[in-house]
Amino acid sequence: MKTKNILAFCFILLGFANLYAQNTDDWHPIDSPGVPMPDSMKIYTIVQVNPKFLGGINKFITSNLQYPDSAKKNNIQGTVFVSCIIEKNGSISNITIMRSPDKSLSNEAKRVISTMPNWTPGQQNGKLVRVQYLIPVHFKLQ
């Protein structure tokens, strides 16, 4: 009787051990580093040829930036860091505020970046690629 109980316990234990030892090699979340991403979806942070904005990015920003009234009244100034992706066709996507001293400055920086015309896209190994880019937008009261 005792041997049957021990044997039954061993089979149950082996069954639970088998449940937790399932092979997960063929299961990966979408953003898993082990899963190769199609080249059309890759986003580069460092490339051989950086994206370029014709006419100068600072010139475009300063000529299109409108200082928010609420920030002026409260004497708020500083730099908003905007992350975006320069697509293969030069358009801008995924505009994200990374750091900002104030919500009104964030909104204005995002608005200005979203109005930019197309860039010359970045290149890696002679091919056009998507590139993540960080743009500082400076707000300074005179």
Strands, helices and their partners?
Elements: H1 2-20, E1 43-44, H2 57-64, H3 69-73, E2 78-86, E3 92-99, H4 103-114, E4 122-124, E5 127-139
Parallel strand pairs: 1-5
Antiparallel strand pairs: 2-3, 2-5, 4-5
Write out key terms for the chains shown.
142 residues, alpha+beta, TolA/TonB C-terminal domain, five-stranded mixed β-sheet, 4 helices, 5 strands, disordered N terminus
Kindly describe this structure.
The chain is of the alpha+beta class. The chain has a single domain, classed as TolA/TonB C-terminal domain (2-Layer Sandwich). The protein has helices spanning 2-20, 57-64, 69-73, 103-114, and strands at 43-44, 78-86, 92-99, 122-124, 127-139. Strands 1, 2, 3, 4 and 5 form a five-stranded mixed beta sheet that branches. It is elongated. The protein starts with a helix and ends with a strand. Mean pLDDT is 83; it is low at 3-31.
Give the oligomer, counting copies of the same chain as homo and different chains as hetero. Answer: single chain
Q: At the fourth CATH level, what is the homologous superfamily?
A: TonB
What is the approximate shape?
elongated
CATH class call: Alpha Beta
| Cα end-to-end separation | 91 Å
Separate helix tally: 4
CATH architecture: 2-Layer Sandwich
Report the strand count: 5
Which sequence of SSEs, written as H and E, runs from N to C?
Answer: HEHHEEHEE
Strand content: 15-25%
Chain-averaged pLDDT = 83
Structural class: alpha+beta
| Tally of individual domains | 1
Show unreliable segments. 3-31
Q: Characterize the main sheet.
A: 5 strands, mixed
What's the CATH topology label? TolA/TonB C-terminal domain
Q: Helicity level, as a percent range?
A: 25-40%
Please give the radius of gyration in angstroms.
Answer: 26 Å
